[in-house]
Amino acid sequence: MTPAASPATPSLLHGRALVFAAILLAAVNLRTAVTSVTPLLDVLGQDFGFGTTMTGVLGMLPTASFALFGVCTPMLARRLGLERTTLLAMALATIGLLLRSSAVGVGSLLAGSIIALAGMGIGNVVVPPLVKRYFANKVGTMSTLYISVLQLGTMLPALLAVPVANAAGWRVSLGMWALLALAATLPWLMLVRRAPHPDTLAATPDPAAQPHGKVSRTSLGWGMTLMFGMTSLMTYSMFTWLPRIVVEAGASPAFGGIMVAVFSALGLLPSLLIPSLAVRMPNPFPLALVGFGCFTVAFAGLLLAPMKAPLLWACLLGLGPSTFPLALTLINLRTRTATGSAALSGFMQGLGYSFSCLGPFLVGWLHALSGNWVLPFGFLFVCALVMLSAAWFACKPRKLEDLW
What we know:
Blueprint lengths: L9 H4 L2 H13 L3 H4 L5 H8 L3 H29 L1 H20 L4 H29 L4 H30 L1 H6 L1 H18 L24 H30 L4 H14 L1 H11 L6 H20 L5 H10 L3 H11 L4 H33 L3 H22 L4 H4 L1
Helix pairs in contact: 2-7, 2-8, 2-10, 5-6, 5-7, 5-17, 6-7, 6-10, 7-16, 7-17, 8-13, 8-16, 11-12, 11-16, 11-17, 11-18, 12-15, 13-16, 14-15, 14-18, 17-18
């Protein structure tokens, strides 16, 4: 077996069980700063005296931060190594969450949010190449585990935010997730201390095996980016506007919340199934086709008959983003090395999340412009077509390093 194909060098195999736990602990912290604050924005607005404009800014911060820090992370990882970069990510998440929970004004609230989201944006990018480095022979299993844990870390803060805030105050509700981020720093601190030298992505025993080139010059890179970006755009648009759609159709606000809860919960199913299916298929494009079908049927149902079968539309919306776990799994299936995986992950997530920033804004603008939901759903259908077309290039059985 060549060095580039090996799951890990002998020195990296030491402590593999520890890194297994460390990866899962990192994954569970990748969304806590996002979903722990959104249910409390009204309360925070009352305490700090901000209105809808600042609420919109706080709503856009996650995807904007993921985009910015996603682009920067591969360069950071080359300088520090994957393990040290992950330790930095978890430390930033801990500090940011603590700062946000102790905020005394809008400025410190924003600063804490940006620091925490910077850590999570870095973590988004480094986790897939860590799976490639330590578990290259178990990509499907590890991808299923870490993506499912990521989904749980998305759901739990949203479910607990309001009950904990009612019982102990919003500072406790926001700050308690810093303990989880702190717990995630400990195994990475142990792994970093065991490494005798900085473990950079560029270090490989065989210089000829070291990948080089730009992801932006490959059809694979753009296919992955557009598939991931359009999926995120449609998902974040529905998170933002689904309650408004059903309320305008005659439902109560409480039912709108139920629709979002069903939408979120169903997202766990693709996370459990898609990675293990993708590793068994030379070309997993049929999985993207299923996601496209679920999205388009749900969009048609919400536009033409929103209250005829609303829970069915919510379930289909939850299954539509199957291309999210597919994209995260393909990062490792379409690369040979941890270096290639980090480069593809940074490009895909950095640029992809910048697309998703636009989704909620454009859907709202088109709705305000037309006074109905025809134009917004027309826009989302075009995005679904772009996603499907991009998936054709992303799913082709080839390796990034070969395209370089």
